[in-house]
Design a protein that fits this description.
It is a single chain. The protein has 364 residues and is mostly beta strands. The chain has one helix and 21 strands. It is 8% helix and 62% strand. The strands form two sheets. It has a twelve-stranded antiparallel beta barrel. Strands 1, 2, 3, 4, 5, 6, 7, 8 and 9 form a nine-stranded antiparallel sheet that branches. The radius of gyration is 23 Å and the shape is globular.
Length: 364
Amino acid sequence: MTPTEREGRMSGSLCLLFLRNLGAVIVLLYLSALPLLAKRKDDRVVLKNGDHITGEIKKIERGILYFKPGYALEDIQIDWTRVERLESQDYFTVGLTDGAVYTGLIKKEPPSSEETNDFTISTPGNVVERKRAEVVTLQSMEKSRWNQMKGSIDYGFSYASGNSQTQSSFAADAQYHGERNWLIGKASSNFSGQSDGTSTQRETLSATYWRRFTKKTYGGFLLDLLSSSQQELDLRTTLGGAIGRTLVQTDRTNFEILGGVVASRERYSPTFIGDPTATNAEGLAGLSYSRFRFKVFDLTSSVRIFPSITQAGRLRLSSDSNVRWEFIRNLYWSLRIYENFDSRPPINAPKNDFGITNSFGWTF
């Protein structure tokens, strides 16, 4: 195979993977825009400054109450710590800091003391009393499943006339969270090149399914696709299962660990000496951390380590960290750092793929 044919084959593979990623994102965005089911508009919220608002409770997420007043076209964001009283006649799914999830009618009243439970969830057979600070998430049961999805899409571009260098980055994600099950999909594309120099491309696509077993333990399946010209990797497909546990969960912070076993299929460019294809069995150990501060920043970071079972001494590492600053409602600036390391590639190819991107994005 000539170098031109190899470049054409790799470019075709990258373009196909990117188009698939873009198509999946468009479908998810369309589905997320489906209309809401009918819901009451007489929910009441009273703030600590005495303001009374009547309308519709949308959700509570990361310490923010999303509430749509009856007179407004869009919902407003309220700091959950500033809410004195909250009441609704609709059913909600409530997630707590200890991992428990309940569905029922909700009510928050002013506490008589700091030790008093001020938030109640009235289920068909029981009344659960907790403190406001223990409420991590709240999701309306009146929404369709598609409208329970959330996600983001961002794009960055830069150009330097001095050396005609162009860089672009694209990323998108969509998530669905139910009472016991949740799905996460992510896609990204990065390009860097010069008119008279070498160009590099990196494409990723991932999907995970998780099911909650106990309050803080869950398990499921994961699929990852990676194409990296920097590492001469046409395509790596990773498929496996894992068990995870939530160690810390509050309305602002989340810390989890996971472990499992995966199988990977790799196809490298035959530019270097060695077998361009390989199949491996690998272990999996991972950490994920997220931190949120209202109107300040949103930090997420994850690290996954894959020690090879079939190739002694080989170790892969994948990390991804992202910081977002929201400057206008649903619009943000993002700084992302990623790395993919392989201690012993099956061919004589570069071991590391590292990058930093910045972009502007939109959440939905």
